[in-house]
Amino acid sequence: MSMEKNQLGVMKVQATIRKGQRWSTAKAFLRPAMSRKNLHVATKAHVQKILIEGKKAKSVKVIHNGKPKIIKVKKEIVLSAGTVGSAQLLMLSGVGPREHLKQLKIPVIADLPVGNNLQDHLCTDMLTFLVNTSDCLTQKNSETLAVLMQFFLFGTGVSISAGGIESIAFSKVNPDTSEGLSDIQFHNFATHFGTNDERLVEKNLNIKENVFSHMYGHLLDTCGVLIAPTLLRPKSTGTIRLKSTDPQDDPLIDPQYLSQPQDVETLLKGVKEGLKLLETPSMKSVSARLNDRVLPGCEMHTFLSDDYIRCYIQHMAIGIYHPVGTCKMGKASDKTSVVDPQLRVIGIEGLRVADASIMPQIVSGNTNAPCIMIGEKASDLIKNGK
Question: Does residue 218 carry a catalytic annotation?
Answer without folding.
Answer: no
